Amino acid sequence: MKIISTILLIFCSSVLWSQDDSTGVKTFNEVQIIRPVIPEEPQRFTTEDIERLQPLDLGSMLQSIPSVSIKNYGDVGGLKTLSYRGMGAQHNVLMVNGFAVANAQTGMADYSQVPVENVSYIEHDVFGRSNILPTVGAALQGNVVSILTKGRQLNYTKQSVLASYGISSFGQHDIFALYKRKLKKGAFGIDVNQRFYRGNYTYNFQTSGIDVEGVRENNAYQSSFVNFNYIRNWEKNYVYKVFEVFGGYTNIANELPGAVLLYAIANDEELNSEKGYVNLSYKSYNKRVKAWNIRSRSYASFQLDKNQYLDPTYFNAAGFLEHNYQNFSHYYGHYAKALKGDRFTLNWGGEFENNLLNSNREDFATPNRLMAKGLMAGEVKYTKYIVKGSLGGRYILEQNRGNNTWRNPIFAFTPEVLVDRPFLIGNVGAFLWYQRSFRLPNFNELYYSQIGNIALDPEKVNQLNLGVKWHSKNSVGNAYGQEFNANAFGNLIEDKILAIPTKNLFIWSMQNVGQVGSIGGDVSYVYRKKFRNNKFMQLNANYTYQRVVDLSEKGSATYRHQIAYIPEHSANFSGTFEYRNFGMTHSLNYIGARYALNQNIPQNKVAAYMTYDINLSLDLRGNSKLPLRVNGGIKNVGGKNYQYVKSFVLQGRSFYLKLIYEI
Amino acid sequence: MKFSIYIVFLGLLLLACKEDPLPEPDNTGGKEGLLLLNEGLFQQNNASLSFIDSEDAITNDYFLQQNERLLGDTGNDMIVYGGKVYIVVHASSTIEVLDKSSLKSVKQINLQHQGVNQLPRFVVGHGAFIYVSTYDGFVNKIDTSSFTVSNRVAVGNNPEGLAISNDKIFVANSGGLNSPNYDSTVSVIDLATLQVTDEIFIGANIGELTVDSEGDVYVVKRGNYSNDPSELFVLDAQNNYQKSNLGIAATSLFMDEDDKLWIAHLNYGNNTSNVAVIDAASETVLSSNFINASDIQSLYGIFVDEEYLYCMDARGFTLTGNLKKYNKNTGVFVEEFDTGLNPNTLVKIKN
Question: What is the pLDDT of residues A589-626, one digit of tens each?
Fold first, then answer.
């Protein structure tokens, strides 16, 4: 009983909404207690994890998560999209500081455009167990990649400065500066980030057993990010309140290297984008209420994206192609959580979202999407079980303002059930989870010239997961000890949206085609140990098997064939060793063979690859007056050009050096 | 213990990488047979050749086997002319020249102008030259000895099919990259002066051309794939190339040695395929439905030799293709071959 109480106490603390800038790490210095087994916990990366691995961008960091495939078209600035267990890139949502990033035109996040210099925490939450309170829209979508920025962390010193400069092979320079100041009732922070990349690199890879050499050109990339945040917190009449405002501006000029085409010279397309956003949040918590502790959050977000696609040598009548798109999204919502003791939790919320797209194209629609979203969820802790259920709904109206036509309204539910048994046997916990969710067709799929199909239905997915987790008895918080996770899953995607050539080889169109099924499992292991004399070691390893197959039509040439670009096998390993002020991390990323098309024949096979990185760090803060840290390392030590997507050849070995100044 | 875990994982991951072996070269040069161009898919570098010998044995990836390199990206057209085979590789912007006897590459012509890929589409031979349409709006005259471009003639937007009649080149201007504002004309180039002497209005999005023994030019108008349908026109050589509509839908054409025009049509609306036959001399329809095409998923090209009709099936464009062989006189199915991706052009190799 004593143990159970302790477990529940800690468990409750981990789900407090007010902990939303926590990493889930609780350090208890005085009392050694067994932390609960929460088998469905999100995959998490702390600031230290990010510093140890020194990823190129958020996409590079996420590729080490079990069951996640990052479809990588390039290095710096190259499109990186996330697929989880064979679900497409539009089944996940990126959330920054608790706000979902919206882009109804593509419906997906490009994880290459999120630098990690300003990121203090990353997590991937599939089972709705994040400490970060999501927007209602993100909670309904599920499969949330969430990051917290350094600027947004509450600052307990009067002021602090963080500045870094990094230089890497292929003409890459990264400059970052952050200033934070504690105010009388709150905090203020501002950060700037500049990235330059010249990018052209030689390659040598094999395709169909033939060595191909060349230079991948048109890679130059330049980005500027400015973000600010203001947090005000105060207490009045026992009500604790927090008001937050985040804003920012991004400007990216991106050459598009495209695929390596045999015998052809370089591409010359460009993509220029600008983004501005303002996010507002107001939270309150009445400390006096005992029966039901209600915490609520009201929020609003305004996001404007401008994208310009340029092809200066396009063979149309004008002699060039310039497409301009402007996406404006805004949403408003309210989310509340009520806790009664440590046994009952209720969540509810509503959100309204509006997406508008304009472009300079005569043959593109001007859509206006209106969405109303609602969510109810409850959680009961009963004897040794925790049972959670939720039901969300979305009602969507969509108008083409150009010809004032409306698509048929969509009304769809998202049910979710989770049964958790924290201590099934000893330190082993287990859970069973089911969710049915869907993703909407994006504006490109609906309206893009010739390709678009306004009759598309949402793509639905049923997900089932059985997971177990074990951790060693000496695990305290997440700091030290061993952990082992294993999951078995089965998914069924219905009305899969795919581009199919329906007119000729160059003119494809979007169609709902049949079903995709997936089964598989993943295992992961973490070992953390702090030795005497300031020695620390951490080992992470995971392996994923996913069989994701076409189930659309029995007897077809692709029936039960693995879906394109989903590797059946993938694995990651990283090992960190730290002694006093020196650290060394080795990381390996293995991606098994994939197919470039859904027909699994040798001609369509894309070879497996493995990358190996070494990262070194030296913390000079203890030995000198300069508050300086130095990171350096080698990415892709083997130097072999590899390709995740056929013909999109990635760079070989690269070196980097980074200086970090922090007071 | 901790370090041993590290080493075990490292070893397992290193063992997991394995390469597929190279195919063995097959020396079938000099043999007679059929050479099939498989277009491949854009950005996949998988255009390929298949060779069917006189004993009806097919060898796929034939270019790779003969030349130990890949053909390139998006093979679009192929002709036998003189002692050579000319293959137009669109996205790679090359013309691959094969020796007809050995079927080995003797030259790769890169078509770039001022540093920009010209994107070739179709090829036709005449005299000591081949003429190649390129998407930059030109017809390129290429010497078959030096393999260099000697002249470039500006035509309409995104030219496609070519045909030669009475010392004139007829050029189909598709304007496909201006969709939905397609080009609608056939340009006529005088071969002696290399000047455009006429522009004949046909209709939106013109594709393939072919010519009969009387010099009449047959023109496929592809339309806009929705409310403007595909149609077949003929330009009468005896009547100053006056245009008339044959009232039949078409996507690709083949004129056989008996002056019969074989017309392949893939209906994109209902995804059905059809083969019709016209007597070119009388312009009468001999058959509007020559074969049972229900087994053909995406009819992408057609070819006829002395005995057989061959239909190239792209099978939805993302699966390995299929070549179906029918009796030329009865339309009865004979046999089929599995090919490369998106077969579109077949030629006969005689040595």
Answer: 999 999 999 999 999 999 999 999 999 999 988 766 78
| Cβ atoms of residues B259 and B281 within 8 Å | yes
Rounded distance, CA A494 to CA A517, Å? 9
| Exposure string over A526-558, b if 16+ CB within 10 A, otherwise e | bbbeeeeeeebbbbbbbbbbbebbbbbeeebbb
- Residue A62, SS3? helix
Taken in order of first residue, the domains within chain A and their CATH numbers are 43-662 (2.40.170.20)
What average pLDDT does chain A have? 88
d(CA A226, CA A222): 14
Of the pLDDT bands very low, low, confident and very high (cuts 50, 70, 90), residue B4 is very low
Say yes or no for a CB contact (<8 Å) between A450 and B225. Answer: yes
- B339, closest residue in chain A (CA to CA): A603
Chain A CB contacts of B117 below 8 Å: 264-265
Q: Report residue A334: phi and psi, to 5°.
A: -140, 135
Place of tokens 């696609």: A309
pLDDT in tens, B247-257: 999 999 999 99
Confidence bin at B345 (pLDDT 50/70/90):
very high
Give B70's contacts in chain A (Cβ within 8 Å). 207-208, 210, 212, 262
**Which residues of chain B make contact with A484, given a CB cutoff of 8 A?**
none
- Report the residue from B12, B74, B225 with minimal CB separation from A507: B225
Banded pLDDT at A36 (limits 50, 70, 90):
low
Flag whether residue A260 sits within 8 Å of chain B, measured between CB atoms: yes
What residues in B contact A501, CB-CB < 8 Å? Answer: 316-318
**Chain B neighbors of A558, CB-CB under 8 A:** 319
Residue B82 Cα, gap to closest chain A Cα (Å): 25
Please list the helix, strand and coil fractions of chain B in percent, rounded to the nearest 5, in that order: 10, 50, 40
Q: Is A31 on the interface with B (CB under 8 A)?
A: no
Complex ipTM > 0.95: no
Q: If you search the block for the tokens 């082993």, which residue do you land on?
A: A428
Residue of A nearest to B67 (CA): A210
CB A130, CB A95: distance < 8 Å: no
User: Are A500 and B316 a contacting pair at CB < 8 A?
Assistant: yes
The answer to whether B163 and B211 are in contact (CB under 8 A) is yes
φ and ψ of B139, to 5 deg: -110, 130
Tokens matching residue A84:
């989880």
pLDDT, residue B123, reads: 98
Rounded to a whole number, what is the distance in Å from the CA of B335 to chain A's nearest CA? Answer: 19
- Name residue B86's amino acid: Y
CB–CB of A264 and B271 under 8 A? no
For residues B155 and B293, give the distance between their C-alpha atoms in angstroms, rounded to a whole number: 37
What's this model's pTM, rounded to 2 decimal places? 0.89
Residue-wise pLDDT tens digits, A248-258: 999 999 999 88
A508: closest CA of chain B, how far (Å) = 10
Contact at 8 Å (CB) between A201 and A216? Answer: yes
Interface of A with B in 511-570 (CB under 8 A): 527, 529, 537, 539, 541, 557-558, 569
Using one digit for the tens of pLDDT, what is the confidence trace for A358-384? 999 888 899 999 999 999 999 999 888
